[in-house]
Amino acid sequence: MTAQRKVIRDVIWGSDGHLTSEQIYFLAKEKMPSISLGTVYRNLSLMSDEKEITRISIPGSPDHFDKNTVPHQHICCAKCGRLEDVELPGLGDLIKNAVSADVISYSLSIKYLCPDCAAKARTESGSDRP
Amino acid sequence: MTAQRKVIRDVIWGSDGHLTSEQIYFLAKEKMPSISLGTVYRNLSLMSDEKEITRISIPGSPDHFDKNTVPHQHICCAKCGRLEDVELPGLGDLIKNAVSADVISYSLSIKYLCPDCAAKARTESGSDRP
DNA sequence: AATAATAATAGGAATTATTACTAAAAGGAG
DNA sequence: CTCCTTTTAGTAATAATTCCTATTATTATT
């Protein structure tokens, strides 16, 4: 465990989760200004491989990293991009039943309009002057 | 419907599905050598928006495009990258029940070892000389 | 059919996210 | 402390995709 890796780890543990590599890089830089982007990427990949953190892949946006390693999925607002956790009990079984071969991993991403953006969209389309 | 768009459409319809933008570009170029990559990308995005085709996003590999617009999911071999369709009846309901807000779209991608690659892995690890 | 207005294209530059490379620094075993 | 391995910082390179612009095609209008 190098000092750099500890800083990265602390940034992720000190957050609410769902940070991008870039966000982690800038937060880590506050604690250790000499840290380099390559180091952040390499450590994030290593930590994902070791299942210390989870890599979240969302189509059309950069990868996010989650301190929560308990299986769960994510919903992503189509407008603002904000991520929220969502539990889908039964998804694992559903997949196991449908796929005969051994599953290595799976990832589900759901696009929706978050309450904030949905409210904004309503007022905009509802008002007289668009 | 421009000539270019028709060529792109024909390439996709003439395939088994699951082509990348690059593959579509090169196949389209055979029928229309002047076609440009930007045109292919733009038309694929338009056609996806109009739901004439489906964009398949797989973490770690370029987008693929599918002529099959009936809801279904994909399994991707972790070794060779080959894509196969998989039906997951009940997934839509599972998501609807878990997410209170309106869902715009969702996509599931499953990583596994395809039969061919699994066989290769077995003979390699099983033999005396690795 | 000629002309004007609009939309789409080809070709290339630019962007984004990420990985690869390399020389220097750090860390550990003996 | 010295040798050996690992990791780092910094930079260059890559991959996929988007953006830009002058040109070309298409459509509408007269």
How does this model look, in words?
2 copies of one chain form a homodimer. Chain A has 130 residues and is α+β, with helices and mostly antiparallel strands. The first copy, chain A, is 42% helix and 25% strand. Chain A contains 5 helices and 6 strands. The first copy, chain A, has helices at residues 3-13, 21-31, 37-49, 91-98, 115-126, and strands spanning 19-20, 54-58, 61-66, 73-77, 83-86, 103-112. In chain A, the strands form 2 sheets. Chain A has a 3-stranded antiparallel sheet with strand order 1-3-2. In chain A, helix 1 (3-13) crosses helix 2 (21-31) and helix 2 crosses helix 3. Chain A binds chain B through residues 55, 57, 59-60, 63, 75, 78, 86-88, 90-91, 94-95, 98-99, 101-115, 118, and chain B through 55, 57, 59-60, 63, 75, 78, 86-88, 90-91, 94-95, 98-99, 101-115, 118. Chain B binds a DNA duplex (30 and 30 nucleotides) through residues 2-5, 20-22, 34-39, 41-42, 45, 62-63.
